[in-house]
Amino acid sequence: QVELVESGGGLVQAGGSLRLSCAASGRTSSFSYLNIGWYRQAQGNDREFVASITSSGGNTYYADSVRGRFTISRDNAKNTVYLQMNSLKPEDTAAYYCHTYYGREFWGPGTQVTVSS
Question: Could you tell me if 71 and 10 are in contact, meaning their C-beta atoms sit under 8 angstroms apart?
Fold first, then answer.
């Protein structure tokens, strides 16, 4: 069992920055073996992929819409994955979720990011 909890969301003006955190609890001894992804869901839209990072942190992947503005990273000693979001745009407004697969899918409850124009 892996529990994921996101934090760091909030209200920011366009052009601003936020750093989201995804902290894992439960079977954290397995955390360093898990690939972790960030997804987001804007009101009325489907959930979409934002970024992901492999277990060692050696490979990262980004949606075209955020590449060059967002950076995903991880600290396995802290069982935490981060999403640094720069140059935020109003269209980045959404609930952000972290996700992993460990026998089954695990999702956090999400953190809201609102970018005002």
Answer: no
Tokens of 4: 């994921």
Q: What is the pLDDT of residues 46-95, one digit of tens each?
A: 999 999 999 998 999 999 999 999 999 999 999 999 999 999 999 999 99
Provide the total of helices (H) and of strands (E) in the chain, helices listed first.
0, 11
108 HSE (CA, 13 A, CB side): 27
The alpha carbons of the chain give a radius of gyration, in whole angstroms, of 13
Q: In terms of DSSP bridges, do strands 111-116 and 10-13 run parallel, antiparallel, or are they unpaired? A: parallel
Joined together, the tokens standing for residue 39 give: 């997804």
46-85: buried (b, 16+ CB within 10 Å) or exposed (e) per residue?
eeeebbbbebeeeeeebeeebeeebbbebebeebbbbbeb
